[in-house]
Amino acid sequence: MSDIVIAASLCVAAILGVANQASAQAAAPEKEAREAVAQFYTALNALFTGDMKPMNDVWSHADDVTYMGPAGGFQVGWKNVSEELVHQAAMKLGGKIEPSDIHVIAFGGALAIVSNYEKGENINTAGKKFPVSIRVTTTFRCEGGKWKMIGHHTDLLPSLVK
Questions:
Q1: What is the structure's pLDDT at 158?
Q2: What fold characterizes domain 29-154?
Q3: Residue 124 banded pLDDT, cuts 50, 70, 90
Q4: Which residues contact 133 (CB under 8 A, 6 or more apart)?
Q5: pTM for this one?
Q6: For residue 113, which of 153, 80, 84 has the smallest C-alpha distance?
Q7: Where are the domains of the chain?
Q8: Which of 7, 13, 93, 116 could disulfide-pair with 102, CB 3.0 to 4.6 Å?
């Protein structure tokens, strides 16, 4: 009987060890995805000052990226997405946006989907501050060991809709 208990205990320990290892492996992509989110919001706030370079760094430059931003429209491919972002940088909206209620779904080590709110304020073309509180879904892909944004979809902001 004690041999059965020992064998059962070893099986349970092995199962728990595999589960802990799987949990640790799943935590790494989630942590990396959260770091990519932080880098994106740093880039977004730089974009509001007219600086496009950080946004260039966080996005994938692939033909399959998509952008559906707060001004409306649907851009596909890095060429079209970057043109829209350059246009936004030229607006120099100022202000600051931060993510809140971040929820990450990581798929292995290759893809992550992040849903959150963007909250803060921008400045319209008349120089008046306006609040921002929109829902956002962002998709990241690991490319060459770095997490790159491949999709960004937000609610519309009436003050920006074309």
A1: 84
A2: Nuclear Transport Factor 2; Chain: A, (3.10.450)
A3: confident
A4: 117, 118, 119
A5: 0.81
A6: 153
A7: 29-154
A8: 116
